[in-house]
Queue: 2 jobs
Job 1
Amino acid sequence: SKDNLAIEVKFGLDNTTDKGTIDGESTCKTPMLENGVQGESGGEGKCSKDKWMTHPAFLAFGGNGLWVGKFETSYTNGIQIKPNITSYRNITLGDSFKKSKEYNKDLQSHLIKNTEWGAVAYLTQSIYGRCTRGEGSVTCSEVTQNTNGSYYTGYTGNTAYSGLDNAQLASTTGNYSGIYDMNGGAWEYLASFMLDDKNVNPMYSSIGLTAVDLNDERYFDLYKYGTSYANWDRRILGDATGEIGPFAVIGNTYTSSIYNDMTYFTYSSYPGSARGGCVLSNTSVSGIFALYPPDSSLNDQSFRITLAVQ
């Protein structure tokens, strides 16, 4: 198992290029930029060991950071991002994409992309998240599941978010400043779509969108066409999918080597993506590294909003 494998993270203000250094450290180009389309999968990924790469989540909007919704999105007289209220479900992937963009256009709000979820997952599995270093060893802990049967946000297990110490266990950072509901709760849609069998246009009609909805490539990731949920060579380096192998089958579920999270890649039958797991149907395999193509069971699917602050 790679549960205790800490991911190395370095913070900086500059983007990496083909050659060069940042703060004296060797760098390499972010592979996703080689394709000509922001966020398209299949970059060569020739980033060798001991070189630093700017994470793709920070490239699309030209800023140095992102604001990620602290909880799954809720709806009570309008969209809210608060704890201890039921998450916004019974909504399609297409509608969640559109409503996320309408939330705050000034701050370029949008449905979280797979690459952005990957950035959060990496930070969680680092010393800035749920890992601590001792003498010659590293210890990482999985984000505690939200197991509330009514899909209430911010829960630790089945205990409401209260700001007390036990509530920190469900945070990506192990403290109050982290992000919640990324393990359990409802499956969360991603603004990450698969291209058609010619790898030309997104399969937008299958997810309730049009070409007009997808006229700005900054707001979504694109994955090359595939007919199997096990085609991991279609990943984007940085989306926290391809590196979570080797994979195994536990029971009837395809799982990764990090926390045995469920891992089914987007493919022709289900060209969308969702992450985090649904605790009611997949308790043992929910997790921040879980990945699944959403189907027509809208009751267990929600979404998360991200802001691209300049």
Job 2
Amino acid sequence: MAGTVTHLDPVVPYRELGAHNVDHPMRVVTREAAEHNDWSPEKASNVSAVFDELAPDWHHSHNDPERTASLVDALERGGVRDGRLVELGCGTGVGTALLASRREVSAAVDLSPGMLAEADASCAPLVRADASTLPLPD
């Protein structure tokens, strides 16, 4: 198929996930939501609570070049069109700061108020919302 990317050399060496990560509760919820459209307000509340607990240490444990390499690569080689961006699942804003250094970010959205409380609001407007029902205009 013309224009289809079948392979990109990794920018950062890929680290294999161990078998123990396959059935991590968050991976299971994500897979069910994606594959079976299995998402509900109850699941959203449970996921929010999990990330609220993780929020205080999240920024420090996720702010390293290996974790942001794929975002940098997507912006540089991924054919991202010009224009404003909305970041879904912004967490504590590690990616938001990177995005805002390159483009205007209209909103940084996360389900977890705990994560948003740790984010830097100077990079973009922070919005608490479920990505399945965004409170944003087209």
